[in-house]
Amino acid sequence: MHLLIFYWSKLRTFAPNIIKSKKKNKFFYYLFKNKCSKYCTSKTGSMAKEIRNREDNYSEWYNNLVIKADLAENSAVRGCMVIKPYGYAIWEKMQADLDRRFKETGHVNAYFPLFIPKSFLSREAEHVEGFAKECAVVTHHRLMADPGGKGLVVDPSARLEEELIVRPTSETIIWNTYRNWIKSYRDLPILCNQWANVVRWEMRTRLFLRTAEFLWQEGHTAHATAQEAMAETRKMVEVYASFAKEVMALPVWIGPKTATERFAGAVETLCIEALMQDGKALQAGTSHFLGQNFARAFDVQFANSEGKLEYVWATSWGVSTRLMGALVMAHSDNNGLVLPPKLAPVQVVLVPIYKGEEERSSICAHLANIGTRLQALGITVKLDDRDNVRSGFKFSEWELKGVPVRIAVGPRDLANGTIEVARRDTLEKQIVPLGGLEDLVQKLMHDIQNNIYDKALDFRNKNTFEINSYDEFRERIEEGGFFLCHWDGTPETEARIKEETKATIRLIPEREDPRPGNCMYTGKPSAQRVVFARAY
RNA sequence: CGGGGUGUAGCGCAGUUGGCUAGCGCGCCACGUUCGGGACGUGGAGGCCGAAGGUUCGAGUCCUUUCACCCCGACCA
After folding, report:
1. Residues A110, A242 within the same domain
2. Most buried one in A256, A310, A390, A457, CB count within 10 A?
3. ipTM of the complex
4. Domain span at residue A490?
5. Alpha carbon of A422 to those of A333, A350, A406, A441: distances in Å?
6. A355 touches strand B (CB under 7 A)
């Protein structure tokens, strides 16, 4: 963008008359071509795209991409976002798949209130400390006409006796409810999930990655024993990991967090971490073993088989619309989004190439027929029969939206009985006979899904390093990536490294043969390497 | 909450030391020519310049306040 502005102002200075001309665009293009031929293409639209792609700042690229790909936009409300239909369709697919996985592991859905009495939040000490700084608070329940005549004001007489907190997470209100549900060991386990929105008043927000309000699911389970709860914690983080791999085509590391990075109120936090293309890590999901902390705070006890009272063991686990951010940042390229077929709202787009109304109608009819054949296989198809944009425009637009497969048919194909098939992940095009349509598309769905995963895995492997010297670490962390390093296990060292390098311990990887060594910072003994990275 | 930046047509942006009826590109509408990778011509519609005060004969431009958004930090999923 800076280039554009620069040459634009030059043009103004040196050739003001040209600017007045309707042909400004063309002159501008020629000027640009002379100065900067390597970025040049023959169309002004592509030129703007080339410039945009040279934008150094990844955050801007990401935001721009999300907006341009029609996924989301900033709302009028501070820090919130509007998820647009195309983006929401992706979320719905994620939801459906996750929900199926939850049901398969014995969970049921329920719904708990949006508002939490302030007193609930303060029951669990660490939990309060973790969330108190970022809560939206409801203090009144009524508005009235402004006595000064200017719109509405809060009615001071409608002040709530106890303020209500808009849930930042639902542990407290759920455990307050579970107290009534649990009397005996026969009532356990309770395996509930809720799909909901939560609000965390973050200082700084970013579309999908950190918004003030976000959609998520939160599972809250209650168990009779610590072992059972721990097993549940483990099971659910594995559900997330396999979902990430199989559906999102996103390779993740699984492991526990360090004590510093743990969820507020948890005894143990397991997480999945993914590597984004700019080398930063993204926590994509968490599963917490809460011990008996919330049961004690809300006095939830059960009679065991011997008739003795015990506190209940708890877990909670969640993933959010942040997964959408992960999806965008892990797979996209300079042409836009790259969606894995399993999450693409449109899996195959059909684009006619024609001149004249007659050709248009015959080719569209032909494509509609192809569409029907694909729909019979359960594939989501979109026929782009708009006649106000040309085919080339449609090609780039659907690439921007990440549609995995594009089928184009023109008069030539119609005559030869062929179709042009293009895949989004590799941008390859081939002309094939129409006869093999079903097999080819099904194979492509499969191949693209796998290829996207392989690409992301390859990227992660190439950007995962074992480092032993702290000097080298400080240098290499600038380039991003996962760093496997020895750490002495103390929060002090962890904090110092964070302060000096902005890198945090993302997780402690679980390996069959943990090799001991010496902490890269202090030289003290270390049981195994941990994963350091700069994170979102 | 600290530092920096931006608010002017649906989108992206010009607008000079205050001055005439606020401009340009894309998009949109109409007609025509086009159509195998972001088409072109002609004509047209679309704005109380983020909001509120103030200075002035006169404010997009200067001053004050305020709101929103973006980027970099701190905080977090």
Report:
1. yes
2. A256
3. 0.80
4. 464-533
5. 16, 11, 5, 10
6. yes
